[in-house]
Amino acid sequence: MSKPWYKTNNPAMKEEYFVGSGSYSGSLAGTQTGVMTVNGTVAKTGLLLSIVFSMGIVGYLFPNPVLAMAAIVLAIVAAIVGMFKREWAMPISLAYSVLEGYALGFISLLYSIQFADTQYKGIVPMAMAATFAVFGTMLTLYVTRVIKVTDTFRTIVWGATAGAMLFYLGTFLISFVMPGIYEVLPVFSAGPIGIGFSLLMIVLAAANFATDFDMIERGVEARAPKYMEWFGAFAVMLTIVWLYLEMLRLISKIARSR
After folding, report:
1. Domains contained in the chain, number
2. Among 12, 93, 146, 221, which residue's Cβ finds the most Cβ atoms within 10 Å?
């Protein structure tokens, strides 16, 4: 029996996006018809992941600080737009994957250089392995119903995530006028507070996987329009990227604390 639809004040998760005729005629949705499926969402997630990985290699081998900064800013814009314009999910998710992939490659290179002469010189593959280990664990826990996504669970996760994203975005913007802000705030330090904060963010990112899987499952049950497969894949990619960055931060803090 289908789970009852949930109520939420989150504008990014309105029921109207899932319940419909199963097709969409908007210009940016293209000519996609049919309904959302698990297999379709998985395939699109794999495509986006391959784009991010490929562009990550480009960013790692051909680094350019200006391009990387531009990619980060544009990726943030794409992510915000994509959360509210679901019918644009296909072009937005593809553009985001290209931009974020290059940015992640550049960021990964910086971490690799920083710890090249230490026992953490493999920080990038370590972070990647940890990221997909958490992803696999959360998927298993969700499929086996060890973790059940309730209204309260969603509210807490979405609220905490919104707060975290606002904090990160605010810090990023302030850094343009106060470059030393990352050295001032204890949450970015290599001390107990900084490491504890990173662990908290990793737990929060992991919890987001559960809400992503739940959203996809509900979309399939509600026979959501086909373009929602792209949005489901986009949501999972956002969480994977966030978790990977948090893993890099955590490992780097542990390395610096020694």
Report:
1. 1
2. 93
225 φ, ψ to 5°?
-55, 155
DSSP 10-37: -GGG-GGGTSSSS----GGGTT--SB--
SS3 call for 54: helix
pTM of the model: 0.87
User: What whole-number distance in Å separates Cα of residue 147 and Cα of residue 139?
Assistant: 9
Angle in degrees, 0-180, between the axes of helices 192-221 and 38-61, rounded to the nearest 10: 140
Among 103, 32, 51, 70, residue whose Cα is nearest residue 233: 51
Q: Which helix (H) or strand (E) holds 83?
A: helix 65-84
Domain that holds residue 98: 25-257
Amino acid at 180: G
Q: Answer for the pair 78, 231: CB distance below 8 angstroms, yes or no.
A: no
Q: 16-64: per-residue pLDDT in tens?
A: 445 443 443 344 444 456 899 999 999 999 999 999 999 999 999 999 9
Does residue 12 form part of some domain?
no
